[in-house]
Amino acid sequence: MASLFGSGLQALAGAVELAVSSGSILLGRAAHAQILKSVDPPPLPSFLSNHLINMYAKLDHPSAAALLLSLDPSPSVVSFTALISGAAQNRRPLLALRLFPVLLRSSARPNDFTLPSLLKASASIPCPIAGLQLHSFSLKSGLLSDPFVSSAAINMYHKTGLISHARVLFDEMPQRNIVAWNAVMTNAVLDGRLDTAMEAFISLRSSAEVPNEVTLCASLNACAGAECLWLGSQLHSFIVRFGFVANVSVGNALIDFYGKCESVEEARRVFDAMLNKNDVSWCSVIVACAQNADEEEAFRLYLAARKEGFVPTDFMISSILTTSSGLSGVNLGRSLHAVAVRSCLDSNIFVGSALLDMYGKCGSIEEAEQVFESIPERNFVTWNAMISGYAVQGNASNALKVFDDMTSRSEVPPNYVTLLSVMSACARGGWLTEGMELFEKMEERYGIRPRMEHFACIVDLLGRAGMEEKAYEIIKKMPMKPSVSVWGALLNACRIHGKAKLGRVAAVELFEMDPYDSGNHVLLSNIFSSAGR
Protein backbone atom coordinates (compact mmCIF):
# COMPACT_ATOMS: atom_id res chain seq x y z
CA MET A 1 0.00 0.00 0.00
CA ALA A 2 2.83 2.38 0.90
CA SER A 3 4.42 1.62 -2.44
CA LEU A 4 1.18 2.40 -4.27
CA PHE A 5 0.77 5.62 -2.29
CA GLY A 6 4.29 6.66 -3.11
CA SER A 7 3.85 6.02 -6.81
CA GLY A 8 0.59 8.07 -6.67
CA LEU A 9 2.43 11.07 -5.27
CA GLN A 10 5.10 10.69 -7.92
CA ALA A 11 2.36 10.76 -10.56
CA LEU A 12 0.93 13.94 -9.04
CA ALA A 13 4.40 15.49 -9.01
CA GLY A 14 4.57 14.63 -12.72
CA ALA A 15 1.21 16.39 -13.23
CA VAL A 16 2.63 19.51 -11.56
CA GLU A 17 5.65 19.41 -13.89
CA LEU A 18 3.30 19.02 -16.86
CA ALA A 19 1.42 22.13 -15.71
CA VAL A 20 4.70 24.08 -15.80
CA SER A 21 5.72 22.84 -19.26
CA SER A 22 2.24 23.49 -20.71
CA GLY A 23 1.77 26.80 -18.89
CA SER A 24 -1.57 25.64 -17.45
CA ILE A 25 -2.34 27.07 -14.03
CA LEU A 26 -5.68 25.18 -14.03
CA LEU A 27 -3.90 21.84 -14.33
CA GLY A 28 -1.47 22.92 -11.60
CA ARG A 29 -4.26 23.86 -9.21
CA ALA A 30 -6.10 20.60 -9.92
CA ALA A 31 -2.92 18.63 -9.14
CA HIS A 32 -2.42 20.72 -5.99
CA ALA A 33 -5.96 19.94 -4.83
CA GLN A 34 -5.43 16.23 -5.41
CA ILE A 35 -2.14 16.36 -3.49
CA LEU A 36 -3.90 17.96 -0.51
CA LYS A 37 -6.48 15.15 -0.56
CA SER A 38 -3.75 12.51 -0.75
CA VAL A 39 -1.50 13.87 2.01
CA ASP A 40 -3.12 13.77 5.42
CA PRO A 41 -2.05 15.03 7.85
CA PRO A 42 0.13 17.94 6.59
CA PRO A 43 2.83 19.12 6.08
CA LEU A 44 3.53 18.14 2.49
CA PRO A 45 6.62 16.06 1.72
CA SER A 46 9.50 18.34 0.75
CA PHE A 47 9.74 17.08 -2.82
CA LEU A 48 6.03 17.84 -3.43
CA SER A 49 6.27 21.24 -1.75
CA ASN A 50 9.23 22.11 -3.99
CA HIS A 51 7.34 21.03 -7.11
CA LEU A 52 4.36 23.21 -6.18
CA ILE A 53 6.50 26.23 -5.28
CA ASN A 54 8.30 25.90 -8.60
CA MET A 55 4.98 25.58 -10.48
CA TYR A 56 3.38 28.67 -8.93
CA ALA A 57 6.57 30.72 -9.26
CA LYS A 58 7.17 29.79 -12.92
CA LEU A 59 3.51 30.48 -13.82
CA ASP A 60 3.76 33.91 -12.17
CA HIS A 61 1.65 33.31 -9.07
CA PRO A 62 4.24 34.45 -6.50
CA SER A 63 1.77 34.86 -3.61
CA ALA A 64 0.77 31.19 -3.75
CA ALA A 65 4.42 30.14 -4.04
CA ALA A 66 5.41 32.34 -1.08
CA LEU A 67 2.56 30.92 1.02
CA LEU A 68 3.72 27.36 0.35
CA LEU A 69 7.27 28.35 1.26
CA SER A 70 6.09 29.82 4.57
CA LEU A 71 4.13 26.63 5.39
CA ASP A 72 7.22 24.43 4.95
CA PRO A 73 8.69 23.86 8.44
CA SER A 74 12.20 23.39 7.06
CA PRO A 75 12.47 24.91 3.57
CA SER A 76 15.53 23.86 1.63
CA VAL A 77 17.68 25.82 -0.79
CA VAL A 78 15.69 24.12 -3.57
CA SER A 79 12.48 25.72 -2.25
CA PHE A 80 14.03 29.20 -2.09
CA THR A 81 15.73 28.83 -5.46
CA ALA A 82 12.47 27.78 -7.15
CA LEU A 83 10.71 30.95 -5.96
CA ILE A 84 13.70 33.21 -6.69
CA SER A 85 14.13 31.74 -10.17
CA GLY A 86 10.43 32.14 -10.99
CA ALA A 87 10.39 35.74 -9.79
CA ALA A 88 13.46 36.61 -11.86
CA GLN A 89 12.03 34.83 -14.91
CA ASN A 90 8.73 36.73 -14.65
CA ARG A 91 10.39 40.14 -14.26
CA ARG A 92 9.82 40.51 -10.54
CA PRO A 93 13.40 41.39 -9.58
CA LEU A 94 12.57 43.07 -6.26
CA LEU A 95 10.70 40.00 -5.02
CA ALA A 96 13.64 37.77 -5.95
CA LEU A 97 16.13 40.05 -4.18
CA ARG A 98 13.96 40.38 -1.05
CA LEU A 99 14.08 36.60 -0.67
CA PHE A 100 17.89 36.58 -0.47
CA PRO A 101 18.18 37.85 3.16
CA VAL A 102 15.29 35.52 4.14
CA LEU A 103 17.29 32.63 2.70
CA LEU A 104 20.42 33.69 4.58
CA ARG A 105 18.50 33.80 7.88
CA SER A 106 17.27 30.23 7.35
CA SER A 107 19.29 27.06 7.76
CA ALA A 108 19.65 26.76 3.96
CA ARG A 109 22.51 28.26 2.00
CA PRO A 110 22.56 29.63 -1.58
CA ASN A 111 24.13 27.39 -4.20
CA ASP A 112 25.31 27.63 -7.81
CA PHE A 113 21.67 27.59 -9.00
CA THR A 114 20.44 30.29 -6.62
CA LEU A 115 23.05 32.94 -7.38
CA PRO A 116 22.63 33.07 -11.19
CA SER A 117 18.90 33.75 -10.67
CA LEU A 118 19.66 36.46 -8.09
CA LEU A 119 22.24 38.05 -10.40
CA LYS A 120 19.71 37.97 -13.24
CA ALA A 121 17.23 39.79 -11.00
CA SER A 122 19.80 42.41 -9.99
CA ALA A 123 20.57 43.03 -13.68
CA SER A 124 16.95 44.14 -14.17
CA ILE A 125 17.11 47.10 -11.76
CA PRO A 126 18.93 50.36 -12.52
CA CYS A 127 20.91 50.43 -9.25
CA PRO A 128 24.03 48.21 -9.43
CA ILE A 129 24.56 47.99 -5.65
CA ALA A 130 22.59 44.73 -5.34
CA GLY A 131 24.69 43.11 -8.05
CA LEU A 132 27.92 44.28 -6.42
CA GLN A 133 26.85 42.77 -3.09
CA LEU A 134 25.92 39.47 -4.75
CA HIS A 135 29.30 39.41 -6.48
CA SER A 136 30.97 39.96 -3.12
CA PHE A 137 28.94 37.14 -1.53
CA SER A 138 29.81 34.80 -4.42
CA LEU A 139 33.49 35.55 -3.94
CA LYS A 140 33.42 35.00 -0.16
CA SER A 141 31.37 31.81 -0.39
CA GLY A 142 33.63 30.31 -3.06
CA LEU A 143 30.79 30.06 -5.59
CA LEU A 144 32.30 32.58 -8.01
CA SER A 145 34.59 29.87 -9.34
CA ASP A 146 31.52 28.16 -10.81
CA PRO A 147 31.46 29.22 -14.49
CA PHE A 148 27.67 29.72 -14.50
CA VAL A 149 27.79 32.02 -11.47
CA SER A 150 30.64 34.07 -12.93
CA SER A 151 28.90 34.23 -16.32
CA ALA A 152 25.74 35.55 -14.64
CA ALA A 153 27.86 38.17 -12.84
CA ILE A 154 29.43 39.25 -16.15
CA ASN A 155 25.98 39.58 -17.69
CA MET A 156 24.79 41.58 -14.67
CA TYR A 157 27.66 44.06 -14.96
CA HIS A 158 26.97 44.57 -18.66
CA LYS A 159 23.26 45.14 -18.04
CA THR A 160 23.91 47.68 -15.26
CA GLY A 161 26.49 49.59 -17.30
CA LEU A 162 29.60 48.53 -15.34
CA ILE A 163 31.40 47.23 -18.40
CA SER A 164 34.88 47.65 -16.91
CA HIS A 165 33.87 45.41 -13.98
CA ALA A 166 32.63 42.79 -16.44
CA ARG A 167 35.90 42.93 -18.35
CA VAL A 168 38.00 42.47 -15.18
CA LEU A 169 35.84 39.57 -14.00
CA PHE A 170 36.04 37.88 -17.40
CA ASP A 171 39.83 38.29 -17.55
CA GLU A 172 40.22 36.80 -14.06
CA MET A 173 38.05 33.73 -14.71
CA PRO A 174 40.21 30.60 -14.27
CA GLN A 175 37.85 28.61 -16.48
CA ARG A 176 35.78 30.30 -19.18
CA ASN A 177 32.87 28.34 -20.54
CA ILE A 178 30.84 29.15 -23.63
CA VAL A 179 28.19 30.87 -21.49
CA ALA A 180 30.76 33.47 -20.37
CA TRP A 181 31.95 34.08 -23.93
CA ASN A 182 28.36 34.43 -25.10
CA ALA A 183 27.58 36.90 -22.30
CA VAL A 184 30.47 39.13 -23.40
CA MET A 185 29.58 38.93 -27.10
CA THR A 186 25.81 39.32 -26.78
CA ASN A 187 26.05 42.32 -24.47
CA ALA A 188 28.69 43.94 -26.66
CA VAL A 189 26.29 43.72 -29.62
CA LEU A 190 23.41 45.14 -27.55
CA ASP A 191 25.63 48.04 -26.43
CA GLY A 192 26.72 48.76 -30.01
CA ARG A 193 30.34 47.72 -29.33
CA LEU A 194 30.52 45.63 -32.48
CA ASP A 195 34.33 45.56 -32.66
CA THR A 196 34.46 44.15 -29.12
CA ALA A 197 32.02 41.40 -30.08
CA MET A 198 34.10 40.34 -33.07
CA GLU A 199 37.35 40.49 -31.09
CA ALA A 200 35.75 38.19 -28.50
CA PHE A 201 34.77 35.73 -31.24
CA ILE A 202 38.32 35.67 -32.61
CA SER A 203 39.69 35.12 -29.08
CA LEU A 204 37.15 32.35 -28.55
CA ARG A 205 38.35 30.58 -31.68
CA SER A 206 41.91 30.80 -30.36
CA SER A 207 40.86 29.02 -27.17
CA ALA A 208 39.74 25.44 -26.77
CA GLU A 209 36.09 26.44 -26.40
CA VAL A 210 33.68 25.48 -29.18
CA PRO A 211 31.14 28.10 -30.32
CA ASN A 212 27.44 27.27 -30.21
CA GLU A 213 24.37 28.75 -31.89
CA VAL A 214 24.23 31.71 -29.47
CA THR A 215 27.85 32.57 -30.26
CA LEU A 216 27.24 32.46 -34.00
CA CYS A 217 24.03 34.49 -33.82
CA ALA A 218 25.79 37.19 -31.77
CA SER A 219 28.69 37.27 -34.26
CA LEU A 220 26.31 37.57 -37.22
CA ASN A 221 24.41 40.35 -35.44
CA ALA A 222 27.70 42.19 -34.97
CA CYS A 223 28.52 41.84 -38.67
CA ALA A 224 25.00 42.96 -39.60
CA GLY A 225 25.21 46.01 -37.35
CA ALA A 226 28.54 47.00 -38.89
CA GLU A 227 27.32 46.05 -42.40
CA CYS A 228 30.54 44.05 -42.74
CA LEU A 229 29.68 41.73 -45.63
CA TRP A 230 33.12 40.17 -46.13
CA LEU A 231 33.51 39.14 -42.48
CA GLY A 232 29.97 37.79 -42.24
CA SER A 233 30.52 35.80 -45.43
CA GLN A 234 33.57 34.16 -43.86
CA LEU A 235 31.45 33.37 -40.81
CA HIS A 236 28.86 31.81 -43.14
CA SER A 237 31.59 29.49 -44.49
CA PHE A 238 32.51 28.54 -40.91
CA ILE A 239 28.83 27.78 -40.19
CA VAL A 240 28.60 25.47 -43.21
CA ARG A 241 31.90 23.75 -42.45
CA PHE A 242 31.03 22.95 -38.83
CA GLY A 243 27.46 21.81 -39.45
CA PHE A 244 25.48 24.72 -37.98
CA VAL A 245 23.71 25.51 -41.25
CA ALA A 246 20.71 23.32 -40.30
CA ASN A 247 20.13 25.29 -37.08
CA VAL A 248 17.02 27.47 -37.49
CA SER A 249 18.26 30.30 -35.23
CA VAL A 250 21.56 30.51 -37.09
CA GLY A 251 19.75 30.44 -40.44
CA ASN A 252 17.49 33.29 -39.32
CA ALA A 253 20.53 35.31 -38.21
CA LEU A 254 22.14 34.73 -41.63
CA ILE A 255 19.02 36.02 -43.41
CA ASP A 256 18.98 39.11 -41.19
CA PHE A 257 22.71 39.68 -41.76
CA TYR A 258 22.49 39.50 -45.56
CA GLY A 259 19.39 41.69 -45.57
CA LYS A 260 21.11 44.44 -43.58
CA CYS A 261 24.16 44.19 -45.84
CA GLU A 262 21.92 44.77 -48.91
CA SER A 263 22.56 41.28 -50.28
CA VAL A 264 18.97 40.14 -50.75
CA GLU A 265 19.91 37.39 -53.20
CA GLU A 266 22.08 35.68 -50.56
CA ALA A 267 19.34 36.12 -47.97
CA ARG A 268 16.89 34.38 -50.32
CA ARG A 269 19.39 31.58 -50.99
CA VAL A 270 19.79 30.94 -47.27
CA PHE A 271 16.03 31.04 -46.78
CA ASP A 272 15.28 28.71 -49.70
CA ALA A 273 17.90 26.20 -48.48
CA MET A 274 16.44 26.01 -44.95
CA LEU A 275 14.74 22.66 -44.33
CA ASN A 276 12.92 23.87 -41.22
CA LYS A 277 11.46 27.37 -41.29
CA ASN A 278 9.64 29.06 -38.43
CA ASP A 279 7.73 32.35 -38.29
CA VAL A 280 10.97 34.23 -37.55
CA SER A 281 12.48 32.84 -40.78
CA TRP A 282 9.57 34.20 -42.81
CA CYS A 283 9.63 37.54 -41.00
CA SER A 284 13.40 37.89 -41.50
CA VAL A 285 13.23 37.34 -45.27
CA ILE A 286 10.19 39.65 -45.57
CA VAL A 287 12.09 42.39 -43.73
CA ALA A 288 15.21 41.77 -45.87
CA CYS A 289 13.17 42.41 -49.02
CA ALA A 290 11.32 45.39 -47.55
CA GLN A 291 14.55 47.03 -46.33
CA ASN A 292 16.01 46.79 -49.81
CA ALA A 293 13.04 48.37 -51.64
CA ASP A 294 11.60 45.10 -52.96
CA GLU A 295 8.14 45.57 -51.48
CA GLU A 296 6.37 43.37 -54.05
CA GLU A 297 8.58 40.37 -53.27
CA ALA A 298 8.10 40.99 -49.54
CA PHE A 299 4.34 40.87 -49.99
CA ARG A 300 4.56 37.72 -52.12
CA LEU A 301 6.54 36.07 -49.33
CA TYR A 302 3.92 37.12 -46.80
CA LEU A 303 1.21 35.45 -48.89
CA ALA A 304 3.40 32.34 -49.22
CA ALA A 305 3.82 32.20 -45.43
CA ARG A 306 0.05 32.35 -44.97
CA LYS A 307 -0.38 29.61 -47.58
CA GLU A 308 2.11 27.46 -45.65
CA GLY A 309 -0.16 27.76 -42.63
CA PHE A 310 1.87 30.20 -40.52
CA VAL A 311 -0.33 32.25 -38.21
CA PRO A 312 0.40 36.00 -38.40
CA THR A 313 2.50 37.26 -35.49
CA ASP A 314 2.99 40.82 -34.31
CA PHE A 315 6.42 40.90 -35.95
CA MET A 316 5.11 39.52 -39.27
CA ILE A 317 2.19 41.97 -39.44
CA SER A 318 4.32 44.98 -38.48
CA SER A 319 6.99 43.95 -41.02
CA ILE A 320 4.58 43.59 -43.94
CA LEU A 321 2.77 46.82 -43.05
CA THR A 322 5.95 48.74 -43.87
CA THR A 323 5.79 47.35 -47.42
CA SER A 324 2.19 48.46 -47.98
CA SER A 325 3.17 52.11 -47.54
CA GLY A 326 6.07 51.53 -49.93
CA LEU A 327 3.58 50.17 -52.48
CA SER A 328 1.44 53.29 -51.88
CA GLY A 329 -1.54 51.08 -51.19
CA VAL A 330 -3.81 52.28 -48.40
CA ASN A 331 -6.34 49.59 -49.39
CA LEU A 332 -3.65 46.95 -48.97
CA GLY A 333 -2.82 48.45 -45.58
CA ARG A 334 -6.48 48.35 -44.58
CA SER A 335 -6.62 44.65 -45.50
CA LEU A 336 -3.60 43.99 -43.29
CA HIS A 337 -5.24 46.04 -40.54
CA ALA A 338 -8.24 43.69 -40.78
CA VAL A 339 -5.91 40.68 -40.47
CA ALA A 340 -4.41 42.26 -37.33
CA VAL A 341 -7.89 42.76 -35.85
CA ARG A 342 -8.91 39.16 -36.60
CA SER A 343 -5.68 37.94 -35.02
CA CYS A 344 -6.26 40.15 -31.93
CA LEU A 345 -2.99 41.98 -32.66
CA ASP A 346 -4.35 45.46 -33.40
CA SER A 347 -3.72 46.65 -29.82
CA ASN A 348 -0.14 45.32 -29.89
CA ILE A 349 2.25 48.25 -29.56
CA PHE A 350 4.46 47.16 -32.49
CA VAL A 351 1.53 46.49 -34.83
CA GLY A 352 -0.12 49.73 -33.73
CA SER A 353 3.04 51.72 -34.46
CA ALA A 354 3.35 50.09 -37.90
CA LEU A 355 -0.31 50.90 -38.64
CA LEU A 356 0.28 54.52 -37.63
CA ASP A 357 3.31 54.73 -39.89
CA MET A 358 1.44 53.14 -42.81
CA TYR A 359 -1.64 55.37 -42.57
CA GLY A 360 0.52 58.45 -42.09
CA LYS A 361 2.68 57.73 -45.15
CA CYS A 362 -0.42 56.90 -47.23
CA GLY A 363 -1.98 60.24 -46.28
CA SER A 364 -4.91 58.77 -44.35
CA ILE A 365 -4.37 60.85 -41.25
CA GLU A 366 -7.89 60.31 -39.83
CA GLU A 367 -7.37 56.55 -39.69
CA ALA A 368 -3.93 57.12 -38.15
CA GLU A 369 -5.57 59.19 -35.42
CA GLN A 370 -8.10 56.42 -34.71
CA VAL A 371 -5.29 53.87 -34.36
CA PHE A 372 -3.31 56.23 -32.13
CA GLU A 373 -6.27 56.73 -29.78
CA SER A 374 -6.91 52.96 -29.59
CA ILE A 375 -3.37 51.95 -28.54
CA PRO A 376 -3.47 51.30 -24.76
CA GLU A 377 0.28 51.65 -24.23
CA ARG A 378 2.46 54.06 -26.19
CA ASN A 379 6.23 54.02 -26.64
CA PHE A 380 8.48 56.48 -28.45
CA VAL A 381 7.88 54.69 -31.77
CA THR A 382 4.13 55.24 -31.43
CA TRP A 383 4.49 58.93 -30.58
CA ASN A 384 7.05 59.46 -33.34
CA ALA A 385 4.84 57.75 -35.93
CA MET A 386 1.88 60.02 -35.12
CA ILE A 387 4.03 63.17 -35.19
CA SER A 388 5.65 62.01 -38.45
CA GLY A 389 2.19 61.44 -39.97
CA TYR A 390 1.30 65.07 -39.29
CA ALA A 391 4.71 66.16 -40.58
CA VAL A 392 4.08 64.44 -43.94
CA GLN A 393 0.84 66.44 -44.19
CA GLY A 394 2.58 69.67 -43.18
CA ASN A 395 0.21 69.91 -40.21
CA ALA A 396 2.54 71.66 -37.78
CA SER A 397 -0.27 72.60 -35.38
CA ASN A 398 -1.30 69.00 -34.64
CA ALA A 399 2.31 67.77 -34.69
CA LEU A 400 3.20 70.29 -31.98
CA LYS A 401 0.08 69.39 -30.01
CA VAL A 402 1.00 65.68 -29.97
CA PHE A 403 4.59 66.60 -29.10
CA ASP A 404 3.34 68.70 -26.18
CA ASP A 405 1.20 65.76 -24.97
CA MET A 406 4.21 63.46 -25.22
CA THR A 407 6.50 65.72 -23.19
CA SER A 408 3.94 66.80 -20.58
CA ARG A 409 1.57 63.85 -20.08
CA SER A 410 3.56 60.71 -20.87
CA GLU A 411 6.63 59.16 -19.30
CA VAL A 412 8.20 58.59 -22.73
CA PRO A 413 11.06 61.04 -23.37
CA PRO A 414 11.49 62.38 -26.92
CA ASN A 415 14.46 61.12 -28.93
CA TYR A 416 16.28 62.58 -31.91
CA VAL A 417 13.67 61.18 -34.34
CA THR A 418 10.88 62.91 -32.41
CA LEU A 419 12.57 66.30 -32.66
CA LEU A 420 13.37 65.74 -36.34
CA SER A 421 9.70 64.97 -37.09
CA VAL A 422 8.50 68.07 -35.24
CA MET A 423 11.03 70.28 -37.05
CA SER A 424 10.02 68.72 -40.37
CA ALA A 425 6.37 69.53 -39.62
CA CYS A 426 7.35 73.11 -38.80
CA ALA A 427 9.33 73.37 -42.06
CA ARG A 428 6.47 72.08 -44.20
CA GLY A 429 3.87 74.11 -42.32
CA GLY A 430 5.88 77.34 -42.31
CA TRP A 431 6.14 77.58 -38.52
CA LEU A 432 9.52 79.29 -38.45
CA THR A 433 9.58 80.56 -34.85
CA GLU A 434 8.57 77.25 -33.27
CA GLY A 435 10.97 75.23 -35.42
CA MET A 436 13.93 77.50 -34.66
CA GLU A 437 13.18 77.54 -30.93
CA LEU A 438 13.12 73.75 -30.82
CA PHE A 439 16.39 73.50 -32.77
CA GLU A 440 18.20 76.07 -30.63
CA LYS A 441 17.11 74.57 -27.29
CA MET A 442 17.01 70.83 -28.07
CA GLU A 443 20.24 70.09 -26.22
CA GLU A 444 19.38 72.31 -23.24
CA ARG A 445 15.83 70.99 -22.80
CA TYR A 446 16.11 67.38 -23.92
CA GLY A 447 19.83 66.58 -23.77
CA ILE A 448 19.92 65.75 -27.50
CA ARG A 449 22.70 67.14 -29.66
CA PRO A 450 21.69 68.13 -33.20
CA ARG A 451 22.61 65.49 -35.78
CA MET A 452 23.17 65.93 -39.49
CA GLU A 453 19.47 65.33 -40.18
CA HIS A 454 18.47 68.16 -37.82
CA PHE A 455 20.82 70.60 -39.56
CA ALA A 456 19.44 69.61 -42.98
CA CYS A 457 15.90 70.11 -41.68
CA ILE A 458 16.61 73.53 -40.17
CA VAL A 459 18.31 74.67 -43.40
CA ASP A 460 15.17 73.56 -45.24
CA LEU A 461 13.00 75.46 -42.71
CA LEU A 462 14.98 78.68 -43.15
CA GLY A 463 15.17 78.20 -46.91
CA ARG A 464 11.40 77.88 -47.23
CA ALA A 465 11.09 81.13 -45.24
CA GLY A 466 13.48 82.93 -47.63
CA MET A 467 16.27 83.16 -45.04
CA GLU A 468 19.03 81.49 -47.06
CA GLU A 469 21.79 83.70 -45.63
CA LYS A 470 20.94 82.70 -42.06
CA ALA A 471 20.83 79.07 -43.16
CA TYR A 472 24.31 79.47 -44.64
CA GLU A 473 25.57 80.96 -41.36
CA ILE A 474 24.29 77.90 -39.49
CA ILE A 475 26.01 75.61 -42.00
CA LYS A 476 29.33 77.39 -41.48
CA LYS A 477 29.05 76.87 -37.70
CA MET A 478 28.19 73.16 -37.86
CA PRO A 479 30.38 70.97 -35.59
CA MET A 480 30.63 68.34 -38.34
CA LYS A 481 31.25 68.51 -42.08
CA PRO A 482 27.95 69.29 -43.86
CA SER A 483 26.52 66.41 -45.86
CA VAL A 484 24.92 66.28 -49.30
CA SER A 485 21.47 66.66 -47.71
CA VAL A 486 22.47 69.91 -45.97
CA TRP A 487 23.96 71.54 -49.07
CA GLY A 488 21.12 70.14 -51.17
CA ALA A 489 18.54 71.84 -48.93
CA LEU A 490 20.37 75.15 -49.31
CA LEU A 491 20.68 74.78 -53.10
CA ASN A 492 16.97 74.04 -53.43
CA ALA A 493 16.12 77.11 -51.32
CA CYS A 494 18.34 79.26 -53.54
CA ARG A 495 16.51 77.91 -56.60
CA ILE A 496 13.12 78.82 -55.14
CA HIS A 497 14.15 82.35 -54.19
CA GLY A 498 16.57 83.05 -57.06
CA LYS A 499 19.73 83.44 -54.96
CA ALA A 500 22.28 82.70 -57.69
CA LYS A 501 25.45 83.67 -55.80
CA LEU A 502 24.74 81.58 -52.71
CA GLY A 503 23.35 78.80 -54.89
CA ARG A 504 26.69 78.60 -56.66
CA VAL A 505 28.46 78.15 -53.28
CA ALA A 506 26.16 75.25 -52.39
CA ALA A 507 26.50 73.73 -55.87
CA VAL A 508 30.31 73.79 -55.75
CA GLU A 509 30.23 71.87 -52.45
CA LEU A 510 27.81 69.35 -53.92
CA PHE A 511 29.91 68.90 -57.07
CA GLU A 512 32.91 68.00 -54.90
CA MET A 513 30.92 65.47 -52.88
CA ASP A 514 29.01 63.90 -55.74
CA PRO A 515 30.32 65.03 -59.15
CA TYR A 516 28.16 62.52 -61.04
CA ASP A 517 24.77 63.73 -59.77
CA SER A 518 23.31 65.54 -62.78
CA GLY A 519 20.41 66.88 -60.69
CA ASN A 520 22.66 69.38 -58.93
CA HIS A 521 23.91 70.71 -62.28
CA VAL A 522 20.31 71.12 -63.47
CA LEU A 523 19.34 72.98 -60.30
CA LEU A 524 22.25 75.41 -60.65
CA SER A 525 21.45 75.92 -64.33
CA ASN A 526 17.83 76.75 -63.43
CA ILE A 527 18.99 79.27 -60.82
CA PHE A 528 21.20 81.07 -63.34
CA SER A 529 18.45 80.93 -65.95
CA SER A 530 15.94 82.52 -63.58
CA ALA A 531 18.49 85.22 -62.71
CA GLY A 532 19.03 85.98 -66.42
CA ARG A 533 22.65 84.82 -66.43
UniProtKB/TrEMBL annotation:
One GO molecular-function entry: RNA binding
UniProt cross-references to Gene3D superfamilies, sorted A to Z: Tetratricopeptide repeat domain
Keywords: Repeat
Taxonomic superkingdom: Eukaryota
GO biological process, one term: RNA modification
PPR repeat residue intervals: 278-312, 379-413, 415-445
PANTHER family, sorted: PENTATRICOPEPTIDE REPEAT-CONTAINING PROTEIN
Family according to the record: Belongs to the PPR family. PCMP-E subfamily.
NCBIfam families hit by this protein: PPR
Protein name (Swiss-Prot/TrEMBL): Pentatricopeptide repeat-containing protein
Organism placement in taxonomy: Eukaryota, Viridiplantae, Streptophyta, Embryophyta, Tracheophyta
